[in-house]
Each structure stands twice: as structure tokens, then as C-alpha cells.
Design goal:
Shape: globular
Number of strands: 10
CATH architecture: Sandwich
Largest sheet: 4 strands, antiparallel
CATH class: Mainly Beta
Number of helices: 1
Structural class: mainly beta
Strand content: 35-45%
Distance between the termini: 12 Å
Length: 93
């Protein structure tokens, strides 16, 4: 594993199944309702894509990308507010 790569754990309960999800992913990470609408890469780096099956989520909802020592989500849509109000945890590792 490249020590310069940042990984985060995303935690949520799937509203459709009730299943607890806790993937550990390398940043950048795209979130959205449609896999094909999310970017496959950011520059030369592969993007991890998470499909969230909910009409409250945009087809391409948000991108979590590295920002110095942390992460940021620069997606410029009002739908991104769902991420900040949902009961999800972000933990860097």
C-alpha cells in the first residue's frame, strides 16, 4: 500500500435492506445512484464508486477527494447536503 494514499471508512445502514455497510476505501470516492454517471478516474487516480439506491441521491451525488492532509467534497450541487445531514461516519486510516 502506498503510504501517500488516504483511506477512509464510510459507515451507514442501507435503507433498502437495513444492512450495515462499512467499506474502507482509498480516496477519491464517488457517491451516486448510477454507477455509469460517476467518474472512473480523477487525473491518473482510479475513483472508488459507491452506488446508493435511493431517489434522495443524485445520479452522481458527490466526490470525496484528497485535500492536503484531509479530504473535501467539492461537488457543487444542493443534493450534497444529504451527505452532511445523514447519520454517516467518516474515519481516516
Amino acid at each position: 500500500m502506498n503510504p501517500g494514499l488516504l483511506q477512509i471508512r464510510l459507515c451507514w445502514d442501507d435503507p433498502a435492506t437495513g444492512e450495515r455497510r462499512e467499506p474502507v476505501l482509498t480516496v477519491p470516492i464517488a457517491l451516486g445512484r448510477e454507477f455509469a454517471r460517476m467518474p472512473a478516474s480523477l487525473g491518473e487516480q482510479r475513483v472508488a464508486r459507491i452506488v446508493l439506491d435511493s431517489e434522495q441521491v443524485s445520479r452522481f451525488h458527490a466526490l470525496i477527494e484528497p485535500d492536503g492532509a484531509g479530504v473535501r467534497s467539492p461537488t457543487k450541487t444542493a443534493a450534497t447536503a444529504l451527505l452532511s445531514t445523514a447519520p454517516a461516519k467518516f474515519a481516516a486510516s
